[in-house]
């Protein structure tokens, strides 16, 4: 009887150790996911600054593009999200286009839109307002 009680205690200890390791792994995985998202944001900001006049707009459904052209869609998105800048005549879109699909073709995802502004100051003003809108 003492042997079975000892074996049960040992089994409970092993189960407790495995549960602790599982929780540590889950915490480590969530931290990795958070860091990956932060790195993606940093890469996007660096990419945007390197391309100078370009901004990438993500997750825009392609159905909206079929109704109006991409350039008009970008101007519409800017007017909706930044009403104060929509009135500004200094911000003009020079060119806008969809990016090619680079990700897994079996996984459905919308393609990004790359917008090129005529002046760098227009891009900077939009980025400044977007950052202010993002942070409370």
UniProtKB/TrEMBL annotation:
Residues covered by region (Disordered): 1-33
InterPro entries: L1_RRM_dom, Transposase_22
Biased composition (Basic and acidic residues): 7-33
Name of a matching Pfam family: Transposase_22
Protein name, UniProt field: L1 transposable element RRM domain-containing protein
Domain of life of the organism encoding this protein: Eukaryota
Domain L1 transposable element RRM: 52-133
